[in-house]
Specification:
Strand content: 15-25%
Pfam families: ADH_N, ADH_zinc_N_2
Shape: globular
Oligomer: single chain
Keywords: Oxidoreductase
CATH topology of the largest domain: Quinone Oxidoreductase, Chain A, domain 1
Organism: Mycoplana rhizolycopersici
Distance between the termini: 10 Å
Radius of gyration: 20 Å
CATH architecture of the largest domain: Alpha-Beta Complex
Protein name: NADP-dependent oxidoreductase
CATH class of the largest domain: Alpha Beta
Length: about 325
């Protein structure tokens, strides 16, 4: 099959279109013909080599964490999907590769697409929607009447997290540029803070949860807006000991991550708040719940640009500018 291949790690390393073996499918796998795939900064970080110590990838490999497509075959133990189903997924770590014509996905990572969405729209959702769900519902346990700060509200995760937090009944503050203020308000943000002219910690206080996707300075300043017992959840690091344990890392890496996160964990403890690092995981059941929210109108995809699949490297260059509003999608793979 045709695919975009990463031949070696390297910052801004271009991906090469070439031939890769067709996916092999096990008894619990679903073979999907990919109709659309979206890009995430996670793909760029893996390409750069940032996750070499903790993720099991060796070039040459195919990147890509989001897909929408049609089922073309199912394994003998698969019961929830059949040929022709329209599906979407974030394949689990170790089995990524959506920048290709086809992929084999474990049944438990897959869900039926939300009805009335295009393949392009559906492909924009899995990773960012699962991240928002696991941060706000699973770990944050956000309840009606609570206050939530979501950094980078116009980004891929931010646009979905704002909508999910509002659905959960929270008051939502977000940081963004003035140019994106109206967009995030339409998504449901109650308080919009221009990060270029305002310091968010001077504008708000007494918050129950902060979802951070920014740098170390923003992470530390976020502690100031939380009330005692609040939660600071970061998807941009630093990884903490709980993450190291969940990943089954060796003792050296466990000690290293403990050291890297010791400062923020100490500051959080001093303020009586909880710090945790979130590295989202694949979960088809959660995608099914998210599909229901999309179908009721509680969540809608936000797409910045759509590129032909052959322009995947150009799409990478665009997301790395940091100016994308929502997600960037490549489609359709059948034009390879």
């Amino acid at each position: 099959m045709k695919a975009f291949i990463l031949d070696r790690y390297g910052k801004t390393q271009a991906l090469r279109m070439g031939e890769m073996p067709a996916p092999s499918t096990g008894p619990n796998d679903v073979l999907v013909r990919i109709e659309a795939a979206s890009l995430n900064l996670l793909d760029a970080k893996i390409r750069d080599g940032a996750f070499k110590p903790i993720l099991p990838y060796k070039p040459p490999l195919v990147l890509g964490h989001d897909l929408a497509g049609k089922v073309v075959a199912v394994g003998e133990r698969v019961s929830r999907f059949r040929e022709g189903d329209a599906v979407y997924a974030r394949p689990r770590d170790g089995r990524i590769g959506t920048f290709a014509e086809m992929i084999a996905v474990n049944e438990s990572d897959l869900a039926l697409m939300p009805t009335d969405l295009s393949m392009t729209e559906a492909a924009s959702l899995p990773l960012v929607a699962l991240t928002a769900w696991q941060a706000l519902v699973e770990h944050g346990r956000v309840k009606r009447g609570q206050k939530v700060l979501i950094h980078a509200g116009s980004g891929g995760v931010g646009t979905i997290a704002i909508q999910l937090a509002k659905h959960l009944g929270a008051t939502v503050a977000t940081t963004t540029s003035a140019a994106n203020a109206e967009m995030v308000r339409k998504l449901g943000a109650d308080i919009v803070i221009d990060y270029r002219s305002q310091r968010f910690e001077d504008e708000i206080s007494g918050y129950d949860l902060v979802l951070n996707s920014q740098d170390a300075d923003t992470l530390e300043r976020s502690l100031k807006v939380l009330k005692p017992g609040g939660k600071l959840i970061s998807i941009s690091g630093p990884p903490d000991p709980a993450f190291a344990k969940a990943q089954g890392l060796n003792i050296v890496l466990k000690l290293l991550l403990r050291l890297l996160s010791s400062g923020i964990r100490r500051m959080a403890k001093q303020r009586g708040v909880e710090y945790s690092f979130l590295f989202m995981r694949a979960d088809g059941a959660q995608l099914g719940r998210i599909a229901e929210l999309v179908e009721t109108g509680a969540i809608r995809p936000v797409i910045d640009r759509v590129y032909p699949f052959g322009q995947l490297n150009e799409a990478f260059a665009h997301i790395e500018t940091g100016r994308a509003k929502g997600k960037v999608v490549v489609t359709p793979t059948r034009q390879l």
